[in-house]
């Protein structure tokens, strides 16, 4: 019988060409990069192997074109602040995400100090985060949202305006050609950020590759995962370059393979993973090809999602830096594909359906008919339909100034539920083996932005005996000075932390102005 908590008292001894390790990380994105960096700092002697099915790191969800690119801090994302039945605004999720993002910035700041992130401007830049709505009901909602958020110290700098000229100062491209009589409102947080999670991940993988005891194996795909009688895990992994399959054993597995995580969780056959399903949603961007327009806009402007649409489809006119160049995107437009990864297989969804999750999948489908209708409408959109959506945000937009480009693939979590049978989740969820020897990350936004907090929680659950030691506590506090305290509750500490990370990450002035 397996113990409730696995032990690291018995360490593997690494030998040349030995296929044993202490830790295996599956997927070379921001999550594995973050966890790998933490573990190598905390336990330098551990042997870590990282496997990625693509021939380069960050090729899927963490790549700039595929990831949302926004430092999700709940400054502008309206879906994190729902209006309740009594008309009040619930800011709990927004506060949690905002404080988690501050923790991420703390960790990245330490990596800058240590030279792991050599040029922070390649990974994170300051850019205003704005929300923009129109119509009486939406304007009133935004006003109430601003009033509720401004009471909290993490949002105290948020500005609100329903004045046409003031909003035109914030977002001239959106206001140009707009009816001055239209009822509209906007909020602005000047300290927002644009984050290149691909660049962040590459910096951490570069550190890991140069560290003792770490192997990064690209073009390797996990074909099977099974538990051995001694409690260790055995993985069958195919090397695409040699077309050979090898077996690897490890004490701990983290599955951070984006949309590919669910099939791997099913291969592990842990009881805790049964009943989970996935609903893939693809996306597309309209990308501006006119330099004058790109230069005129300097903000991330988020609107309200259409009724029945998934949160990842919240429309936004988005300035970001990609491949060293300033870009302007609008979207994303949702779509449907049975692939779980952008570079996946059309058989991903059919092959993920098991007896244990077929009822949650059916139930979630029945309860989300508006979503299905929305996706059908999105898939059948013409170029004129997409332009019409853009015109709501940019009245002077011209079709010839924009090109359609594929964005990333997301798999929304479907989990069993006693009352509903199955429910569709739009957030991020980690599924753990009972003894903590395997952890799987499922879901989408705001995962990347809160990756540091997610990994801190993971280590607390998977390595409780080690996380509580003085050695780990001291190192975690060195890496994240606020560790053990709540930035959501401690106003003084939050302001001190934000000031420190602003300096270290070079975020004092906008890099896009």
UniProtKB/TrEMBL annotation:
<keyword id="KW-0560">Oxidoreductase</keyword>
<comment type="similarity">
    <text>Belongs to the MQO family.</text>
</comment>
<protein>
    <recommendedName>
        <fullName>Probable malate:quinone oxidoreductase</fullName>
        <ecNumber>1.1.5.4</ecNumber>
    </recommendedName>
</protein>
<dbReference type="InterPro" id="IPR006231">
    <property type="entry name" value="MQO"/>
</dbReference>
<dbReference type="GO" id="GO:0008924">
    <property type="term" value="F:L-malate dehydrogenase (quinone) activity"/>
</dbReference>
<comment type="pathway">
    <text>Carbohydrate metabolism; tricarboxylic acid cycle; oxaloacetate from (S)-malate (quinone route): step 1/1.</text>
</comment>
<keyword id="KW-0816">Tricarboxylic acid cycle</keyword>
<dbReference type="Pfam" id="PF06039">
    <property type="entry name" value="Mqo"/>
</dbReference>
<dbReference type="InterPro" id="IPR036188">
    <property type="entry name" value="FAD/NAD-bd_sf"/>
</dbReference>
<keyword id="KW-0274">FAD</keyword>
<keyword id="KW-0285">Flavoprotein</keyword>
């Amino acid at each position: 019988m397996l113990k409730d908590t696995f032990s690291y008292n018995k360490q593997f001894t690494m030998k040349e060409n030995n296929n044993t390790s202490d830790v295996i990380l599956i997927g070379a994105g921001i999550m594995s990069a973050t966890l790998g960096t933490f573990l190598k700092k905390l336990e330098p002697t551990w042997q870590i192997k990282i496997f990625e099915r693509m021939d380069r790191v960050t090729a899927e969800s963490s790549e700039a074109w595929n990831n949302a690119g926004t430092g999700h801090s709940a400054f502008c994302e309206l879906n994190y602040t729902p209006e309740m039945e009594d008309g009040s605004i619930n800011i709990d999720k927004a506060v949690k995400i905002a404080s988690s993002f501050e923790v991420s910035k703390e960790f990245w700041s330490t990596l800058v100090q240590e030279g792991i992130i050599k040029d922070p401007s390649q990974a994170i830049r300051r850019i205003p985060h704005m929300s923009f709505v129109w119509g009486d009901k939406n304007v009133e909602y935004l006003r109430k949202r601003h009033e509720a958020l401004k009471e909290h110290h993490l949002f105290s700098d948020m500005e609100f305006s329903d004045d046409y000229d003031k909003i035109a100062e914030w977002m001239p491209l959106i206001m140009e050609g707009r009816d001055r009589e239209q009822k509209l409102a906007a909020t602005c947080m000047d300290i927002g950020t644009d984050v290149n999670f691909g660049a962040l991940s590459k910096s951490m993988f570069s550190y890991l590759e140069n560290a003792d005891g770490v192997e990064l194996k690209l073009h390797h795909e996990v074909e099977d995962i099974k538990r051995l009688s001694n409690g260790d895990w055995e993985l069958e992994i195919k090397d695409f370059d040699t077309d050979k399959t090898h077996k690897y054993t490890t004490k701990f597995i983290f599955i951070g393979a984006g949309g590919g995580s669910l099939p791997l969780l099913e291969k592990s056959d842990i009881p805790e993973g049964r009943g989970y399903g996935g609903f893939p949603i693809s996306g597309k961007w309209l990308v501006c090809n006119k330099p004058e327009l790109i230069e005129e806009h300097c903000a991330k402007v988020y609107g309200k999602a259409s009724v029945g649409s998934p949160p990842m489809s919240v429309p936004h006119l988005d300035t970001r830096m990609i491949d060293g160049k300033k870009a302007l995107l609008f979207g994303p437009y949702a779509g449907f594909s049975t692939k779980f990864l952008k570079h996946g297989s059309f058989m991903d969804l059919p092959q993920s359906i098991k007896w244990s999750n077929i009822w949650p999948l059916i139930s979630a489908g029945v309860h989300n008919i508006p979503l299905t209708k929305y996706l059908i409408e999105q898939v059948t959109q013409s170029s004129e339909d997409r332009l019409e959506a853009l015109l709501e945000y940019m009245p002077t937009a011209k079709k010839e100034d924009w090109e359609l480009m594929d964005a990333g693939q997301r798999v929304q979590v479907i989990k069993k539920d006693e009352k509903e049978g199955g429910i569709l989740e739009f957030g991020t969820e980690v599924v753990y083996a009972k003894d903590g020897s395997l952890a799987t990350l499922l879901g989408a936004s705001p995962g990347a932005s809160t990756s540091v907090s997610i990994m801190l929680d993971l280590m607390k659950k998977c390595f409780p005996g080690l996380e509580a030691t003085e050695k780990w506590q001291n190192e975690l506090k060195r890496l994240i000075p606020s560790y053990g305290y709540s930035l959501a509750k401690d106003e003084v500490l939050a302001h001190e932390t934000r000031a420190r990370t602003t300096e270290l990450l070079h975020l004092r002035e906008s890099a896009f102005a």
